[in-house]
Amino acid sequence: MKNVDVIVIGAGAAGLFCAAQAAKRGRNVAVLDHAKRIGGKILMSGGGRCNFTNMYTSHENFLCGNPHFTKSALSRYSQWDFIGLVAEYGIAYHEKTLGQLFCDDSAKDILNMLLAECKKAGASVCQQCEILSIEKLDAGFLLHTSQGEYQCESLVVATGGLSIPKLGASPFGYQIAEQFGLKVKPTRAGLVPFTLHEQDKKILSELSGISLDASANCNNVSFNENILFTHRGLSGPAVLQVSSFWQSGQTVEFDLYPNGDLLAQLQKAQHNQPDIQLSTALGQIYPKRYVLAVLPYFNVANKPLKQYQGKQLEQVAEAFHQWQLKPNGTEGYRTAEVTLGGVDTNELSSKTMEAKKVSGLYFIGEVMDVTGWLGGYNFQWAWSSGWVAGQVV
Ligand code: FDA
Known about the structure:
This protein is 31% helix and 26% strand.
């Protein structure tokens, strides 16, 4: 039997960061993970460069049953605190766009920093350790694992979400919550590409590789970034963002000329070059291959501009400004960056992440019903929630 003060289940972003904080306070901490290779999601994140935070992080960048829940942790351990730590380790980084900070070199730098923080503070990390069962004791918890029994005062669950199962994702954190009588909100894939109905796919899959500026709108939220046509459907930042707000069966509206007035452009072209084809005029704005495929898809005839009456030109502009698409579904957890839903935040203290009903039991990171937008917000939640728990476990 191993006796420690704190056990953290899950050696991902939140778990490692929390373990280092607790160990710095002199607590004896063990992190247990069932995976062969730890920090898989960190290494894969941001295309291998880890978008580790966002300079503009605020509670408004998160989906959560309680929109105020994230405020306390984000203010006590903010993006600036984490940026300070990254700078302390001499890790070079840059802003890619919209406040998103990426490593210049490799996501490995962030994982190595977390492991160095654990090592320096004396937290141990144990890989390939299956947790077989958890029992509540009068004071603390008893864990039966594939590497023997552990007893601890505080138990931190940092098992993450369900996306990318091959990296060790499991529903274990939700099962622990349920074992202790805590509510878990239904889960679904977020920040995930859309798949298409056959009639859309037939035409749009031929546009694979084309990326356009667009704004994607659904359920009163709107994201103005790129969209990307793929051979499976639709991806790109604006699509990933809006996918977290989309419910099955709903329509997404895309403005494919989000920063201008297409009607005014076409009217000007009609006046200046009345003999050119509509496709030629649109080809000055969009890739030619895209224009030729979508005109028939939008049921728009291609003829010289002078042949369009005012109303018809309005209809052309409307087809591009208000493209209505009903996705067939999403690519699911196989490619999703995050899991929406999870341990209900009403069950947890927003100051410490401790379960209100079970003293000594904590949930941090993505396992709970807190999901960030695309852009470094999910890691910031891992750091902020891990840090606040690390001060008290
Ligand atoms: P995380 O998933 O990191 O860690 C959970 C750990 O628990 C894993 O090590 C797992 O093995 C372990 N575990 C699970 N079940 C267990 C069990 N039964 N027993 C023991 N251990 C168990 N975010 C962002 O802000 N910027 C970005 O650039 C990206 N990029 C990105 C790319 C891709 C491809 C994905 C899939 C995700 C991202 N994300 C992201 C999201 C980000 O990776 C994610 O939100 C955090 O890693 C969540 O941190 P956690 O520590 O909560 O879970």
